[in-house]
Amino acid sequence: MNKRIIKYCLLILILNLMSVTSAKEKTSNTFVKIETNYGTLKVMLYDETPLHRDNFIKLVNEHFFDSVLFHRVIPNFMIQAGDPDSKRALPDAHLGAGGVGYTIPAEIVFPKYYHKRGALAAARTGDFVNPNRESSGSQFYIVEGHSYSDEDLDALEHTLNSSLQQALFNRLFSERKTQLKAMELDSVEYNARLREIYNEVKKETTGTSLFRYTDSQRREYKMFGGAPHLDSQYTVFGELVEGFSVLEAISKVETNADDRPLTDVVIISMKIVKK
Question: Is the same domain home to 132 and 194?
Answer without folding.
Answer: no
